[in-house]
Amino acid sequence: MEVRIYYEDTDCGGVVYYANYLKYFERARTHFLEEHGQSVSNLIQDGTEFRVTKAELAYRSAAVHGETLDIETTVAANRRTSLIFSHVIRERTSQRLVVEGSATLVAVNAQGKIKRIPPPILNALNLPTDFPMPAT
Fold it and tell me: What's the pTM value of the predicted model, to 2 decimals?
């Protein structure tokens, strides 16, 4: 996904305000899901919402006004009730690494109770739908 940096994205030092990368991650996840046929509004209508439970970022270089960033998003891991999305942001022209990070999202129902990720979602994301049973 592509993000163009506007003046409003920057801080008083002229670089992208650090918290904006979390917004870019959110946009990239939404884009990723939509590319896999999973619109967020349809997921909610069907009774599945995702909530961020953890986010990690490592800032590698500063992005500035006027640059265009490319965000690569993948599913780094999946569990019965959560997905871990990995994000890598690079400046488009130079391919300079700007930010690396991840976000863990848990699936919940309309009442906010944790639930298993429905198999159709996992299938659409090309993720396994069966999980080994824990040893007893």
Answer: 0.90
pLDDT tens, 42-61?
Answer: 999 999 999 999 999 999 99
Specify the CATH number for the domain of residue 83: 3.10.129.10
Q: Tell me whether residue 11 is one of the annotated catalytic residues.
A: yes
11, 46, 70, 130: which one is catalytic? 11
Residue carrying the six token digits 């569990």:
79
CA distances (Å), origin 122, targets 33, 35, 37, 44: 11, 14, 11, 16
How many CB atoms sit inside 10 A of residue 21's CB? 23
10 pairs with which residues across the strands? Answer: 16
